[in-house]
TrEMBL record:
Keywords: ATP-binding, Nucleotide-binding, Transport. It comes from the Archaea. Residues 297-313 have a biased composition (Basic and acidic residues). Residues 297-324, 365-390 are annotated as: Disordered. One of its GO terms (molecular function) is ATP binding. The lineage of its organism: Archaea, Methanobacteriati, Methanobacteriota, Stenosarchaea group, Halobacteria. One of its GO terms (biological process) is transmembrane transport. This is Peptide ABC transporter ATP-binding protein.
Amino acid sequence: MSNSNTNSNDPVVSVRDLKVHFEDTSMLNAMAPEWVSDKLGLEKDPTVRAVDDINLDLGENDVLALVGESGSGKTTLGKAMVGLTRPSHGSVKYRGHDIWEVRDGDDDGTTFEEIRRSLQIIHQDPGAALNPYRSVLENLEVPLKRWHPDLNFAERRGRIHQMLERTGISPPEDYSNRYVHQLSGGEQQRVALIRSLLVEPEVILADEAVSALDVSLRIGVMDLFLEMQDLFDTSFIFISHDLANARYLAGKSGGKIGVMYLGELVEIGTAEEIIQNPQHPYTKVLQWATPELDPERAEESMRESPPVRKIDIPDATNPPSGCRFHTRCPEAREACKQETPDLYESGGDQHHQTKCFREIDDHEYWQSEELTDDGIDDTPASDQTDEASS
Ligand SMILES: Nc1ncnc2c1ncn2[C@@H]1O[C@H](COP(=O)(O)OP(=O)(O)OP(=O)(O)O)[C@@H](O)[C@H]1O
């Protein structure tokens, strides 16, 4: 994208103090005053705090793999980073331009259309992005016609055939005439990847893009993503609930793994650091739950119980006070209930950060009382504030 303010050292996407909260937009909430719903005995859905207080930069040619349990906010963060979900608070900048200020017309240095082209998404279900009633060629012509209207039919077909061949879909003349339903899952995902790459984006968000694939096909598609990432110098945000996939993607590309828990980024670092030297107690839980990371220990660890005090994940509408993991954390102490940790450097490594007081040698955490199973306080943050003020 041409812009005189663009500096190649700047992050491509930069997120500051990001919150994405989903309000209840149902008719009941919009129309009925509190006393009406109380009288009718109807409960309004509270706000979901899907993403809270995240600061993150994605550089050029960078790879970030976001992992965490279902509902931890991975997709919401990813979509906010590519301008598909509007933040409730904070900013998401593309090459220094606040995406939503541009969208709302407050910034004349760039256009929202250009941002939309630069930030693409590939979904878990590739079929969703492809028209089943059109051939592969017709599907892939759509982005080219939109973003490169100067190309004629022969030039478009030439580019499409080249991309099909590069991604291992061969012979391209044959495949380009097939309909989407005549392709395997792996071939559909390749076509979805080509569709995104044809518009020459700077960032691709791949949301669980390999989870629906058979395990035997997964490595091939992940390798292809990484090959294309390298070839086109495109930054990728991979979303996966599987730490083994995240390790593969971030490890091979020299990227980072970001671990999410209840809307917060709790640890971020290189694949090597997150797998070999995890610091956050929640990252250790994910590692325990992924025995294939260490097959030698797999059998042994399957016999152990998970390193948590409670299995149940608290509700994202009312997360626990202080450190959100304190209700399940085996290392939790009183201080974790009261205060929210920042992301601290782990062991002096600026590329490895952990949201846990245990990173700070002289933090009052070390003097505070350990939380035992009997002492687990499930009171959500908001209720505690209410109690304190009443
Ligand atoms: N449009 C929405 N409206 C209301 N709540 C939402 C919406 N989108 C997501 N949520 C809620 O926000 C929280 C985070 O969801 P998100 O999909 O980002 O998590 P995730 O880690 O990607 O989970 P999964 O792996 O299951 O997709 C969840 O509690 C989810 O129910």
